[in-house]
Amino acid sequence: MSKRKQQQQQSAAADESDSDVSLVNVDFDFFDPNPKVDYHALKRLLAQLFSADAELFHLEALAELILAQPLVGTTVKTDGIESDPYAVLTVLNMHVHKNHPSIKSLIAYLLLKSASNVPLHSTLQSLIGSAGITGSTHVGLVISERLINMPVQVVPPMYRMLADEIKWAIDDNEPYRFDHLLFLSRTYKLSPEEEAELIATAPRSSKRQRNAIDPMRSDGGVYSFHPEDEYIQKFASHTLDFAFSNAQPRDKESFGLDTGGRMMLVPAANLPPLIQALNEAYAPPS
Questions:
Q1: Quick check: is 286 in a domain?
Q2: Residue 1 domain-assigned (yes or no)
Q3: How many independent structural domains does the chain possess?
Q4: Which residue range is the domain that position 274 belongs to?
C-alpha cells in the first residue's frame, strides 16, 4: 500500500548574500516498507544509525523484522516504489519481539548503556528488563534514519502517518498499544576548536542558519545529526547520550566525526503534541 504522495521543497541559501538564494524542488514519495526491494537500502540505513556498534544487532534480522510489518512505518523515495528509500521511520513492539535476536541484543545494549543514568536505567529495567519485558506495559522502539542530505521537512508527515497507522493497527487489535516510545538517534561531538570553526564558517548571510547551530547542540559539545531531536527531548521523560562501544579513539590526525548514540524515552501520550511541535517547526517552504 503506497502512501499519499506529498511534495516537499528543499531550499539552500548561498553564502554570498541574502538575495542570492537557490531553490531545488524535489518530489518526495512516501511508501510503506517494501519487502521486495527495500532490504539492502534499509540495512544500510540501520548500519548508519548504529554506526560503530552496528555489528552487535543482527542487522539482517532487524531489517527483515521491519519489512515483516509493512503496514506500519514509512519510507521516503524520489524515483518510484522500486527505488531505494532515502529515509525510514517505523516502530517495533519490544515486548512482542522480545525473543527476536536483534531486539534481545538491543535490550541488553540499552540497559548496559543506561547504567550511568540511574533514573533512566531504573525505568528501563521496569519496562524492558527481565521482569518488565514480560509485563503488560509495552514499549515501542522507534527507528528513524535518513541520508544526511535529506531535508528535515520530510519528518513531520512521516510521524503523522506513523501515528495514524498505530491507531489503525490498534483498531484492528494489533499489538501497537504502547505506554512508552523509545527513540534511538545519533550524535557527534566537536572539540572547542571545531566548534569555533563551525560557528565561524556558518553562512554570514543567513542568520537563521547560524542560529540553527545552537538547538542541535547539547552539553559538552555534543550535536545531533537529526534536528528533530531538540523537540523529541522536550517531550521525553529521560534522555541519554552515550558512547559507542566499538568506536575507535580519535586524535588530531583522525578524519571523520566523533560519533555516539542517543536514547530518548517518551510517554506514548506525548506523541500527539510532539507531532504538532514538529509540524510547526518544520513546515515545508511555501
A1: no
A2: no
A3: 1
A4: 6-281
Residue 72 falls within a domain, yes or no?
yes
Do the Cβ atoms of 205 and 229 come closer than 8 Å? no
Q: How far apart (Å, rounded) are the C-alpha atoms in residues 271 and 266? A: 8
Where do we find the cell 540499552? 110
Q: What is the pLDDT of residues 219-264, one digit of tens each?
A: 678 999 999 999 999 999 999 999 999 988 765 554 567 899 999 9
Residue 155 lies in a domain: yes
Task: Please state, in angstroms and as integers, the Cα–Cα distance from residue 97 to each residue in 69, 70, 127, 219, 232, following that order.
Answer: 12, 16, 14, 34, 24
Contact yes or no for 25/162 (Cβ under 8 A): no
3-state SS track over the chain? CECCCEEEEEEEECCCCCCCEEEEEEEEEEECCCCCCCHHHHHHHHHHHHHHHHHHHCHHHHHHHHHCCCCCCEEEECCCCCCCCCEEEEEEECCCCCCCHHHHHHHHHHHHHHHHCHHHHHHHHHHHCCCHHHCCCCEEEEEEEECCCCCHHHHHHHHHHHHHHHHHHHHCCCCCCCCEEEEEEEEEECCHHHHHHHHHHCCCCCHHHHHCCHHHEEHHHEEECCCCHHHHHHCCCEEEEEECCCCCCCCCCCCCCEEEEEEEEEEHHHHHHHHHHHHHHCCCCC
Crossing angle of helices 59-67 and 101-113, in 10° steps, is: 110
Does the predicted model carry a pTM greater than 0.85?
A: yes
Report whether 84 contacts 41 (CB < 8 A): yes
Higher pLDDT, 44 or 215: 44
